[in-house]
Fold these 2 entries.
Entry 1:
Amino acid sequence: MNLNLIRKDFPQLRQGFIYFDSGSTSLKPAPVINAVKDYYETLSASVGRGLHRPSNRATTAYQEAHDKVRSFFNTKGHVVFTKNCTEAINIVAHGIDWQAGDRIVTTYLEHNSNLLPWLNLRSHGVEVITVKCTPDGTINLKELSDFITEKTKLVAVTHASNVLGSIVPVEEVVDSARKKGAMVLIDGAQAAPHLKVDVQRIGCDFYAASGHKMLGPSGTGILLINQDIFDQLRPMMLGGGSATDVEFNKITFTQGPALFEAGTPNIAGAIGLGAAVDYLTNIGMEEIRKHELQLSGYLIEQLKKVNGITIYGPQDINKRTGVVSFSIKDIPAHRIAIILDEVGNIAIRSGNHCAFLLTHKILKQEGGTARVSFYLYNTKEEIDTLIDTLQEGIAHV
Amino acid sequence: MCNIQYKLTMLCRRGGREFYHVYPDKSIGVLPHNHKDLKVLISHPKYSVISFPDCNVTVFASGRMLIENLPEDSEKRAHAIVREIISVWCQSGNTPTHP
């Protein structure tokens, strides 16, 4: 992996800013930006709706993007493009035929996107069990398994925490759920950009991911649906493209994933996402993982030198993604983030990271944490600058 | 006399506490460190942390401010704090510049 060449692909890096907030959204490489631009300059037409050649070309490119994503995740199931991971999860929350008394099992590790849609179902009589985790982000799989009963319709867990970086052994979660006949949804927003994800090996029913966190354009997300349960899911939204024939008393719905992509989709975004997947595939997810592990290990070692620091997440670096949360003494996380921005031209995230249960109830950090999140374009030198700024700008003041 | 406009937005509310983010339209530069009306907790070349009875405020040389841990529903109080800081800075004979 040639870091210098990679960095040249990311125009935003030329501004001299250090970007450590890829957990929120990633920077975009030139091939992705160009793919979006090319669509608007040469391909602009709706998809699946016109008989003219531009529409045909756009439809082909749009479909190819689906195929690239299917291959990237090694799934034989259906690929639905969404506007983000949140929408992907909500499609499942709204699409399952819930009955009063059904149970959903989830965890304290979850981002609001994989918690609120389930908590909202309590008004329909659905029981939501939230399994605690340890402060380093470990879920007790035995405890989780014990909560999965015959009443459990869905187990919804994250693949990797957006706060702690801890990786959840999702294959084991799927095994536990299968024994009781429950479906499984994996929130892959923080895993798909950083790990080699093999959906067939995981064996889940739904895998949701954010396109924009994996180098794709804003407004792109992914929902992978196991074809065995595809017919059990009802579309959240209906409109153009949802039906092949409509009469007042009979609607013939579209077959396949297009049923979940009603209306004119984000065509440029989808094509850009296809380019992002190509980019990641060309570099290799194993290489990206190796690079991020090096960065995480180096950052944690360096952070330990900062006076008054508390580092959150697994001690074992191999159980982490490139996310490292920390706090310094009693300094509010937002102050740390703005000082890094103003003093060091460094972008990090601060606060609760939309994971209130985790930061409040498990980490006991009402004010949240400061979070560094890496991607393939970050360097050790950038970490050195971060540490210098923390030392000189915050810890020793 | 200073004529500094600013945009104040609530950053977050949690646990009964509010954080506000302030962007002035002009840079107010570095605050005086030993002003009689301000209690400066931290003084750094690029920012100061000022203590008020009900909160701390981080003020950057760019003029950007972070008001930390005000009680709930304190937007009016946040505006008053910002005006006080700007007033102190202006009384010190400073002239704002565009950031």
Entry 2:
Amino acid sequence: MAVYAIEVPDQRLPATTFEDLALPLFDQLYNFARWLTHDTTEAEDLVQETYTKALRGFSSFQAGTNFRAWMYRILRNSFLSSRTGLKNTVVFEEEEQEPAKDTSTPESLLIEQANREIVQQALAELPVHFREIILLCEVEEMSYQEIADTLAIPAGTVMSRLSRARKALRSVLREKLQGGRHGV
Amino acid sequence: MACDAWREKLDAYLDGELASSEASELSVHLRTCARCSGDALERVLLKRSVAAAGKRYEASSELRAKVAKSIGAKTHREVSRSSGWIWKLLVIPAMLVVILSIGVNLYVSRESARRLRVYGELADLHVATLASSTPVDVVSTDRHTVKPWFEGKIPFTFNLPELQGTDFTLVGGRVTYIAQTPGAQLIYRIRKHEISVFIFQDRDADMVKPSSGANHAFSFTMENWAQNGLRYFVVGDISTDDIQALSKLLRGAG
């Protein structure tokens, strides 16, 4: 396996390393873009736009900061300024700062019965600001700090928004599972 | 602390974001409280379901090719454009600089190639170990078991840090080789990510000695330093902060 080392220590990264850093993120970024847009063409445009903007702004990327969070942030900002994204801006702005007190038990959601498709439907139904934070945490396994960097929000807000997002997800799942059982 | 207060912290605990002291307290609580542990289990199941369900979409190979081409083409265009400028402005001085610095460049590129090779080999060793069905030959979370296991197998000894109160756990170790030099490879874990710590003797002339500090190789983060005649390399697909935290612990023990 050929692995090329890219040194990042003191200076800004040379332009030739952009490809090595950015291309490994391609699949994840596309998956994330599809979840945001719900549309193949829009997602493809979004990913291309992200790479173009990132390459253009690469000289301003600060070495030592998180490259992955930087790429996701570019993608997300591009999405927010797109037509689909603009529709979601109103929801984004209603950010509550107080900690979410989600002490409710998931009430035997029988998650093991919630097959992949139902979870995907539930995720798709969430408002985009809940969907994205759940995906960054669970699928991308980002730390709270990385999520904060990506979403440009304080680390404390990550925890409260994540808590609300999970609560909303459980609620949608619960409806779907109960609806499914009643329907049988 | 009451159950309600603990449950507020459950998500952060399961995300690996709770401070280690609180995490230890919560884990003790979970062992004794059926209600909270049931709650935690459901949250874990949900996390797993979402992680699996979230990996849903795959891009077409056409898009991948298009993106790769676009950034490759732009990178080359930028390089050629900037070379053109320099050439026009500095044609004669540049030639002189090229001639005078040729010896230096040769040396630098040789050193750079050596560095690339050692990072590449370490990344390969790390990946190959994790892919192996038996990643470690001595399986133990106890440093007092792992360290003595290496006695007689490698021509040096080393100290391992106490991990209590940290997010790191020791998984085990194995003997490894780089540039025909035997060394120790230790596997640590943090939040489901494995980290390799390689320790070699620093005196071997053939052993490549990259400059100390943090580096990135593809998605891997690496830290290396020399201490007490040994060279340590820490390799993992985790953040620079985590790599540096583990490196600090190792430095403290060494």
